[in-house]
Every structure is written in structure tokens, then in C-alpha cells.
Design a protein that fits this description.
This protein has 289 residues and is α/β, with parallel strands linked by helices. It folds into 2 domains: 160 residues, HUPs (Rossmann fold, 3-Layer(aba) Sandwich), CATH 3.40.50; 98 residues, Rossmann fold (3-Layer(aba) Sandwich). The protein is built from 10 helices and 12 strands. The strands form 5 sheets. A 3-stranded parallel sheet has the order 1-2-3. A 3-stranded antiparallel sheet has the order 4-7-10. Helix 1 crosses helix 9 and helix 1 crosses helix 10. The longest helix has 16 residues. The two termini are 16 Å apart.
Length: 289
């Protein structure tokens, strides 16, 4: 199959250096493998979407020399597709309705997993509350999920004990990231996912959903995340600075340094096209491909 990769930013603010590192890694991997690089706007969580952020993302990517293939997907326009996937899961009885609030779960949970309290399957074992907003949870299997990360090697996660039954549609009516990303990767024909290691723990959930929906598994590769001086992941929540639209080659150079590609110092003042030519060739010559 031809290589198809992607970059999927959320328009909750401007792109920052951590975004750049992820974009550079996925772009280099796609181009070094003579593949396609697709763009998806993950604007599913509409309350967190910032006005003008999508246009700013496009402008920044173009200014930094990125070019994408095919049509852009906007998650906010795909609710009917996600609902169809959820309906399929309902027919398979791999999901169930839940009326428990986060506060209630924190009070009744007896185990803590990778992302907080493990849901004790209250609504699977007893009737749900009447006249309460419904979320939908996916049943986590007891057998471990194992996959081979291209950069990190064999990874295994027992979702039942480390994650628990997870949300695929929220009580406020919004579809959850885990379901949307799986449906969209399948729709865009994604064969390779290169992204930050902060999403490593999500991979088992996505593989489980792919299996339930009859989708193939992309190849996964997770790169180190960029932290600030306090050791926090660079993000909008930690007030990461927006990528500048000047000295772009210097920013690309720093991203290549972070990715351990050992770029020559003169690249920091070279043309953007020269930076990309060097970066893609260096990635192709590395052990990452």
C-alpha cells in the first residue's frame, strides 16, 4: 500500500514549537517514504475552539514550507459519520450507556489507572439513572493489546486495568477523540501515524476500536514530547508561545536538533526549501524509515 501520513492539529490556539516538532517528524517520514501527507483539523471539541485559529494554522504551515495532499478533513462536519460508527458498536454490544458523572466516578472507583480513576462498570452492572444525560462507553477487553511502535519497540497495555471502559461519546453530545480519530484515519486511508509520545497510551484504545469497526491498523511511531522549563508539555494550556513567522529556518533547525537529526549549523540561516531538502534526506538516511 502507498504510504499515507497525516498531521491533525486542534484549533484551540496557535501552533507552537511542540506542534512544529510533531509536524516536522510526520512530514519528513511521509516525504522520505515517497508518501502522501494529509491534514485534518480536529475541531471536535467546539467549546475549546478558538476563533481564527484554523486560518492561523494554515498560514503558519504554509509559511514554514509544509504542503499537504488531498482535501482537508474537519471533524466538526463529520458528526453523522461518527454516529454511524457508534451505531455499529451499539449493534455489536461493545458499548453501553453511562450516566455517571466524573465526581461520582472519583468517589466510587477503587482503582487508579494511567489517566485517573478506573470506571467500575457501574452502569454496565445496574440500571442507568432515569432522565440523565447519557455518555457511551466502550468495553475494554481483559486481554492485553500489543503493538510494535516503530520508534519505541513492542508496547503492551492491559486496558481493563490501566484505562478501563472509556468514553466514545460524551454526555454533552460531543463525540470523543478516541472514536473520531479512528474513524477519520480509516476515512483518509492513513497507513502511518507519527505523533508525540503523549498519545502513546491512546494507541491501545484506538487499536481496539479499529478491530471492533473492522478497520486496518496503521503503523504507529511516537516521538518525544517537547517540555518547557518547568518540565511541562508545551501546549496551549501551559501558555506555549506561538510559532514566529520570522526566522523560520532557525525554528526548523531547532526542530531538527530536537529530533536528533544533527543538522549542520548553516541550515539555521539557509532557505526554507534548503532546510526541507536536507531534513527529508537526513530522515531517509536515518534508522527511522
Amino acid at each position: 500500500m502507498p504510504y499515507i501520513g497525516r498531521f491533525a492539529p486542534s484549533p484551540t490556539g496557535p501552533l507552537h514549537f511542540g506542534s512544529l516538532v510533531a509536524a516536522v517528524a510526520s512530514y519528513c517520514d511521509a516525504r522520505a517514504n515517497h508518501g502522501h501527507w494529509r491534514l485534518r483539523i480536529e475541531d471536535l471539541d467546539t467549546p475549546r475552539t478558538v476563533a481564527g485559529a484554523t486560518d492561523a494554522i494554515f498560514h503558519t504551515l504554509q509559511s514554514y514550507g509544509f504542503s499537504w495532499d488531498g482535501d482537508i478533513i474537519y471533524q466538526s462536519k463529520r458528526h453523522a459519520v461518527y454516529q454511524a460508527a457508534l451505531d455499529q458498536l451499539k449493534l455489536q454490544t461493545t458499548v453501553y450507556p453511562c450516566t455517571c458523572s466524573r465526581k461520582a466516578i472519583s468517589e466510587i472507583a477503587t482503582q487508579t489507572g494511567l489517566e485517573g480513576p478506573i470506571y467500575p462498570q457501574t452502569c454496565l452492572r445496574q440500571p442507568i439513572k432515569a432522565n440523565s444525560p447519557l455518555a457511551w462507553r466502550f468495553k475494554s477487553a481483559s486481554q492485553p493489546v500489543t503493538f510494535n511502535d516503530r520508534f519505541l519497540g513492542i508496547q503492551t497495555q492491559n486496558m481493563a486495568t490501566e484505562i478501563g471502559d472509556f468514553i466514545v461519546k460524551r454526555a454533552d453530545g460531543l463525540f470523543a477523540y478516541q472514536l473520531a480519530v479512528v474513524v477519520d484515519d480509516a476515512a483518509q486511508g492513513i497507513t502511518h501515524v507519527v505523533r508525540g509520545a503523549d498519545l502513546l497510551s491512546s494507541t491501545a484504545r484506538q487499536i481496539a476500536l479499529q478491530d471492533a469497526l473492522g478497520y486496518s491498523h496503521p503503523s504507529y511511531a511516537h516521538i518525544p514530547i517537547v517540555n518547557n522549563a518547568l518540565g511541562q508539555k508545551l501546549s496551549k494550556q501551559t501558555q506555549a508561545a506561538a510559532l514566529p513567522l520570522e526566522d523560520i529556518s532557525q525554528q526548523l533547525y531547532q526542530a531538527l536538533v530536537f529530533l536528533h537529526l544533527r543538522p549542520p549549523k548553516h541550515l539555521a540561516s539557509a532557505s526554507i526549501s534548503a532546510c526541507w531538502a536536507w531534513a527529508i534526506q537526513a530522515w531517509a538516511n536515518s534508522d527511522r524509515t
